[in-house]
Amino acid sequence: MRRTLIALLVSCLVASSFAQKREGTYGTTGWTINEHHTLVWGGQPYIPVGIRVDGTPAAVLAAKQSGIEDILLDLSASGMGWKDTLAAVEAEKMRYLLRISSLAPMAQGFAVEPQGYRVTGIEKKTTVKVDLPGASSAYVILAAKRDGSVQSKERVPVINGKLTYEANPGPAYEHVLLIYPEMTSIEQPDFWEDLDSHRDTLLASLKKNALGSGLRGIVNPLGTVAELPGKEVRFVPTSLYFRIELRNYLEQRYRNIETAMRSWSMGSGGVESFDEMARMVPLWSGDRGVNMLLDPVTNKLYSSDRRYSTAWADITQVVSLAAARRFDRLVRAIRTVADVPVVQEWAGWSAAYENETPAVDGVGMKASGTTPSVIVESASRATSSVLRWKTNGWLLATDIDLGSGDVGAQVPLVLDDLAGLGARAFFLRGDNPKVLATVKDEASRKAAETTLASTSPTGIFYPENATNPANPQRIGGSRWWLPTPADGNRIDLGSQFSGYRLADQIAIWAKTPGRYKLRMIEPKKATFSTFDGSDPDPRYVKGGVEVALTQFPLLIRGTSEIPIPEAAFLETVAQFDKMMGSAQEDHRDIIEERVLFRDHLNGFELNPGGNFQQLRQTVYKLAYKVSNYTWIEAERSPDTNFSESAPYAGASSAQALILRTAIQPGASGYYAEYLLPVRTVEEQEVWIAARVPTERRASVSVFVAGQLMRLPESPVTLYGDGIGWYRLGTTKLAGGSSKLRIVVDSPGAPIAIDTILLTPGTFQPSAVTPPLPVIPGKTN
């Protein structure tokens, strides 16, 4: 029933959308977007190179005096400053895109983030004071840490942005104060009343001002957002219109209130109508929070079991459908006033453009960095989104930020890389004179590249959590390797091969090109193809198939089994045998590893793919026993006040320790502590694998046996969803054990800690692979 209803609603949205119509008429000039991601204006390709400027007449004139003909103009939806600025653009006969620079309307409601809005360590009567800017009230629950039992609960006013609460835990054991602020969201746009107001304001500004003949598009119709919401909703709007939509959805799906309450895993009685249910706020998120629902109108709590409740699924579905429907209507309305392409800048894997037939006509790349690989990485996701559309889409680089250094010489290289990625319009930040000086010449150069409008990239896609070994890069000619948010993961194939699984396909490639045997049960069920069109020349042999492998992926479809290169199997066996010999010489207890490896080795012939991964894991277990490095999974901290241990794409053990909070920490900061076994008295390198936003790195301290270490400015390498390996320095441990403590001294953007490693010698990080020991006198 649920899938049928959702499918019907989505199909209605798609059917109502004019997303397939990538054409229009502005004034008397017709335009279209061709299959090569190019805007064709009045029959001619429009491939500008310009700069992004503030919406003032002075900024427009300065750009013109620098010889620039095309600009991306930042203006508020309110219409303030439009008249004089647009008159200046028209007088100078410049072309422009209008970027809505004012903030998007954000929803009012309850933030449900018990991972972040929490105060720990409450063991006695305490006055808790928490800054909650923008909040009007908060529902607070004082719960015992050991079993989650509720000690007290109350709706508390927030005065001048500060919550004050007298916490009285009673029994002398630790309690946690959970806070659910009623506030303006910092993540969830308001797709209800405030969007109507925003739309009316923007349309009035477009109608009242002479847009002129130079207009070529409108960027960010919703306004500026730090990040558009993705799959996970952690905010429940209190908008009347949201509640009406949720009420109607619940009634249509469940038909009667008793069925709805059972689906939300609520006890019988107490709720008499769908109107009451539509007010409910689930007070859990992931593993944090309490098994209760709050009615913020009556401040009454209702019990619920998060393991079985569909409350969050229903709320998320209504928010998603509202977002798709109203975003579509907003774009429609803009096009009726100014029939030009409407573009959304890429800001996370969002439904605004992450579907096959989106409402917007194009996606803007935001490219930043000081090296080509970093710039390509930052822009690649916008290309990935558009290449997976079933309609044409304009790709343009709306924000190219090369920093403030002497980077003028890099501009041609950067524009060529972005053009390779599919960008067909380029707007650089013009505050660097070295960059500004190149724009006029680059505009002429790109205008002369007549092939841009008739060529486009093609993509091979990998799951983002398989980043490293897969990375955004060109794979010959116009072919690019690009990330997607689709489910999948990397496959551990040892040191000679790499691979990943994505949906119905498996990709494998080799460090050294050659012909290799892939061990498979039913190789004839599989199909083999290469991204570059070369012939993999499969030849079926006993126990598998021989194929040609290169440094680029061989794509295998039609089978659910994971093909295992024979050479990877032999390497794994050799690694295990060498470490076994060393372990026996040192009289180590390796009985468990020997038995596990033997069992999976015996099963390999019957099921290569299933048993190989267990063989690899047993190799790592044995490596830890015969080595003297220390490998710690960060989410297993025995003493921490971080937000939560949670699933994390591409992380070791698929889990990470997360800090996501807006609350200032106490005197001890946010911390995670670990006990380090002293496995060697040699000097050791200290490494941490973590996702830490650039602006947050200075707030992270690591204490190893009392020695203070800091994160460097940038990681050595990245993997998964933005996790980086940081080398912190070296240390020596003494005694039987020591401690490592990670401290974060302030709130801010989320931080994820994956792995901690202490190892003698030199470590060369490779995704989540632990170091394998070098056995003296033997070749590894």
Compact overview of the structure:
With 780 residues, this protein is of the alpha+beta class.
List the main descriptive attributes of the protein structure presented here.
780 residues; alpha+beta; eight-stranded parallel beta barrel; eight-stranded antiparallel beta sheet; 34% strand; disordered N terminus; disordered C terminus
Q: End-to-end span in angstroms?
A: 56 Å
User: β content, as a range?
Assistant: 25-35%
Shape, principal axes of CA atoms? globular
Tell me about the biggest sheet?
8 strands, parallel, barrel
Helix content: 25-40%
Uncertain stretches: 1-19, 776-780
Number of helices, counting only DSSP H or I runs of 4 residues or more: 14
Rg result: 29 Å
Trace the largest sheet across and list its strands.
Answer: 5-6-7-15-20-21-22-23
Q: What is the typical, i.e. mean, pLDDT? A: 91
Please tell me about this protein's structure:
This protein has 780 residues and is α+β, with helices and mostly antiparallel strands. The chain is 25% helix and 34% strand. The protein contains 14 helices and 47 strands. Strands 5-6-7-15-20-21-22-23 form an 8-stranded parallel beta barrel, surrounded by 5 helices. Strands 8, 9, 10, 11, 12, 13, 14 and 16 form an 8-stranded antiparallel beta sheet that branches. Strands 36, 38, 39, 41, 44, 45 and 47 form a 7-stranded antiparallel beta sheet that branches. It is globular, with a radius of gyration of 29 Å. Residues 1-19 and 776-780 have low confidence and may be disordered.
